[in-house]
């Protein structure tokens, strides 16, 4: 008998066969192997809304929600202040690494907290005694064409004038001093003005730079016309609850010296601390968590890393405001190989998130995120946010210089447990060794490698690519937000399918002689 086509959807509702698997069955079926992101796919749903309407707002910790579910890893080739500033501007958060002295790390936190979009808070400044030869040299190395002149040649001191390239362009005598040729009649603005007000002054004064000074005439910051022209608005920026300052995260270890380090970070304005350990279920981390909760009760604490419910339970009970999940899944990681310890990331993310959510503790899937699809899968398995190292490495906001090899523009990307990173530490900077409980070891055992990645351009383009891609991905699944995804996964409406080895080949580009994989414009 042929059924009436007009009843197809009604018939489906009472149909005994369903496509794909619910999430619990997916995880249970993989119990003899563990699940990675590449092992499965999410089945498509109904699209009845535009991708641009998909909300990616997600919880980072019990008290912090972000517009984008993205974090940059606390690694010395990924997150210093420049990355942290841009991650926050783009709606996520950067976690500043601790493979440096406590003072250096606190200074980075301070720079993120002091950052105001459009204001140059750390301008390159010259002394009145500097010669034309030196100014030309500075211009060649730095590429700027004008410099404020202050009494002692440092920001924060009394502003005396400005030197522009025109002032030095036609001078034959290289020994003339800045004070003899600088422009002294300056248009300045008082500390506290808004970017829009500064913008208007620049426009009407027809100057290229607007120095901002305090009541005593000391240089505080600078607004540049060229910056203003390329300045984007960042409506989704992650900001602290009480101030308009960007949100900033930083990692610390769990040895006694890290308490002093954390005090300095908190003084610099830190919002979130990540307790950085390859295995978070240690008495050291539990003690540290308890100490932080007593000493800095307002600080949000992300504990980890964990991959099992047992590990998670200890940290949840000790007061963790968020959990970081992953052991051995990072792209530079050899932990699973060397330590025989860890867990496939899909299984780890599902199990920990399913448990932690019952206590209202948000979870971050950390490591192994290689593309937008992996982000979607991490969220589908319960993660609130994803942390990325390798995917962001090679962008211009990461620390380190580009270099050329085999005709490619590259940057270094290394594991914090690589010999390179562990040996780069001085006595005050113990991030790498303490992360792996190796600070007392005479022979270092590497848990990571050091390598290189290709230039990915700026994250001001790359993060929007991830964001838009994720919106389209959720649209394909038929969910309108990260919360909607979670509810429909746990409710059994979002369905999953395993991928065999040949399914994975089928899902990749195949049958071409050659091709170029260009991911965004
Ligand atoms: P990726 O995004 O796959 O490159 O992984 C980054 C994550 O790997 C970081 O956020 C850390 O959790 C982890 N990680 C960093 N350094 C090491 C290491 O040397 N060995 C193992 N895991 C590491």
Shape, per Cα inertia axes: globular
Number of domains: 2
CATH architectural name of the largest domain: Alpha-Beta Barrel
CATH superfamily heading of the largest domain: Aldolase class I
**N- to C-terminal distance:** 53 Å
Bound molecules: inosinic acid
Q: CATH class of the largest domain, anyone?
A: Alpha Beta
The strand line-up of the biggest sheet is 4-5-11-12-13-14-15-16
Let me know the largest β-sheet. 8 strands, parallel, barrel
Tell me the CATH topology of the largest domain.
TIM Barrel
Helix content, binned percent: 25-40%
Q: With helices defined by DSSP (H or I, 4 residues minimum), what is the helix count?
A: 20
Class per helix and strand makeup: alpha/beta
What would the average pLDDT be, to the nearest integer?
91
**Rg value:** 26 Å
Number of strands: 20
Indicate the proportion of strand residues.
15-25%
List unreliable stretches of 5+ residues.
none
Keywords: CBS domain, Cytoplasm, GMP biosynthesis, Metal-binding, NAD, Oxidoreductase, Potassium, Purine biosynthesis
Enzyme class: oxidoreductase
Family: Belongs to the IMPDH/GMPR family.
Domain CBS: 119-179, 182-238
